[in-house]
Amino acid sequence: MIPIMEKISFSGWPTKQTVFVIAFLLSVPLIPQAVGVGSLTCRPENGLCSVVDTIREGYSFEGRGNWPLFNVINVNWYGAIGDGITDDTQAFVDAWNDACNLESAVLLIPEGGTYSVGPLVFKGPCATDLTVEIAGTLIAPSELYSLNKSNSNSWLHFFRLNNLTVEGGGTVDGKGGRWWAQSCKKNMTNKCRDAPTALKFSSVSNLKIKDLRIFNSPQIHINFAHCYNVQVAGLQVEAPADSPNTDGIHVSATQNVLIQDSWMASGDDCISIVSGASDIHIKNVTCGPGHGISVGSLGNGFEEEHVSLVVVDGATLIGTTNGLRVKTWQGGVGLATGLVFQNVEMVNVSYPIIIDQSYCEYPYCPSENETSAVQVSHVRYRNIRGTSVTKEAVKLVCSKVSPCRNLYFEDINLVPSEGIGMSLSSCQSAQGVIAGTVIPHIDCLDSPIERHRAMPCSSMLSFL
Q1: Last residue of a domain, one of 207, 235, 265
Q2: Mean pLDDT (whole number) for 390-404
Q3: 317 belongs to a structural domain
């Protein structure tokens, strides 16, 4: 371990006055010109600070942010090479162990380096206000690697942390190609096997993720499990349309989430929201290619599963195989309720609005003789516009034993992408009402039963 005070080079040992001046310069606005103190240089026009690393002569790093000077932990100081070939895993482990024990620490992955690492578990609890600044590039091992409970079937796993920020404008490359080639979904002769999630966050509270590019994950790109108070912004996720199970963001057993101003292209759901998720807000996202934005799947294996209070407000879906989707398996139990989809543009999307309570992704699926289903209720669609590749722009396949209740459609305009004819709707066991202009006309809805006991449309989802 390298003593922290010795990690930054100065002309002579820094005095208390020098440290105070540096800290002051980092914490207040500077005049619009470069300011240098010893080997520290800040450029206020873009918020970048750089420090010369004399351990590797002539090498410097840059990262964004105003940080307490001596709490920056650079992985290069722990032996990381960053040449894209050398295994830098141990250097990251050592750097994390030191950063974890510092208040307001910044674990810096420097710009310009390409670091081959993993799988890694960044485990807490740690001191408060920890930032992982990914300014460079992280790449997964080129060869397939073993999955086990210690890394939670993930490549980079952040576990049991509070007040964590992951940011930096860098790149995370999951090297998923070899995994996809081994998938039984790509080749039915392959044995079905798990593949790692690129970034998994488990039991993390007060989490911020921003300004990152994550691509080619072997499976899910980002997975939130048992987290609370999560904010995501400025995220770019990219994988080929035929890459299996490469969801952009997967939310499970997590509450109070805001995902905004992000773009996702994948071979599965751009965003999937599954059991235990509640109070999920999605704003100003672009999705495509992919399978759309999905609540579910829920109820697989006759499980009881619940999702509530999901708001999608502002989204553009381009060329996706589904648009706004709720999907549940036959035979499950539970509830999906309080769902709002509004202000969404569809561009050449298949099934822009779909509820599928007969969802199955296996070759052999349950029969139609279901005895239970996850209840879908209080779902609002408002101001949904654009073009549908499929003739059916609205498809509501609800359970016969537990019909969809209190569906609400207002100001819908979905027309065929080829511009010929009219789009259609289809319903099974779907109860609801329409308001305003709705195209296609959804005349197949059943009238809501016991309306005096149902939630009024005007007060529906008052949590907004």
Answers
A1: 265
A2: 95
A3: yes
In DSSP terms, which residues pair with 73 in a beta bridge? 107
Instruction: Check whether residue 313 and residue 260 sit in a common domain.
Output: no
Q: How many helices (H) and strands (E) does the chain have?
A: 3, 30
Residue 15: its pLDDT value, please? 37
Q: Are residues 283 and 379 in the same domain?
A: yes
278 shares a domain with 298:
yes
Query: What is the mean pLDDT of the segment spanning 321-348?
Result: 96
Tokens of 188: 């039915």
Please say whether the beta carbons of 350 and 390 come within 8 A: yes
Instruction: Extract the tokens encoding 266.
Output: 């994948």
Q: Which of 221, 291, 306, 441 is catalytic?
A: 291
- Residue 386: how many other CB atoms lie within 10 Å: 20
pLDDT 10s digits, 184-239:
888 878 888 889 999 999 999 999 999 999 999 999 999 999 999 999 999 999 99
* Contact status, residue 63 vs residue 71, Cβ threshold 8 Å: no
Are 326 and 183 in the same domain? no
Give, in order, the Cα–Cα distances in Å from 13 to each of 8, 10, 24, 332.
Answer: 10, 6, 18, 67
DSSP state of 429: S
Instruction: With CA atoms as reference, report the closest residue to 96 among 113, 121, 114.
Output: 121
288 shares a domain with 216: no
Residue-wise DSSP of 99-129: HHTSTT-EEEE-TT-EEE--SEEEE----SS
How far apart, in whole angstroms, are the C-alpha atoms of residue 151 and residue 158? 9
The CA distances from residue 252 to 113, 236, 389, 464, in Å, are 33, 20, 31, 21
Q: Return d(Cα 370, Cα 358) in angstroms, integer.
A: 10
291 in catalytic set: yes
Task: Select from 278, 250, 276, 281 the least CA-distant residue to 264.
Answer: 250
Q: 196: domain CATH number?
A: 2.160.20.10
Asked whether residue 224 falls in the same domain as residue 293, the answer is no
The number of folded domains in the chain is 2
215, containing H or E segment: strand 197-215
Positive or negative CA dihedral for 75, 79, 81, 85? negative
DSSP string, 4-59: GGGSS--SSSPPHHHHHHHHHHHHS---SS-EEETTEEEETTTTEEEEEETTSTTE
Q: Is the residue at 426 inside a domain?
A: yes
In a shared domain, residues 299 and 280: yes
Give the residue carrying structure tokens 């996702």: 264
Same domain, 198 and 152: yes
| Residue 107 falls inside a structural domain | no
Distance of CA 393 to the CA centre of its chain: 27
**What is the DSSP secondary structure assignment for residue 66, as one 8-state letter?**
-
Question: Range of 221's domain?
Answer: 118-265
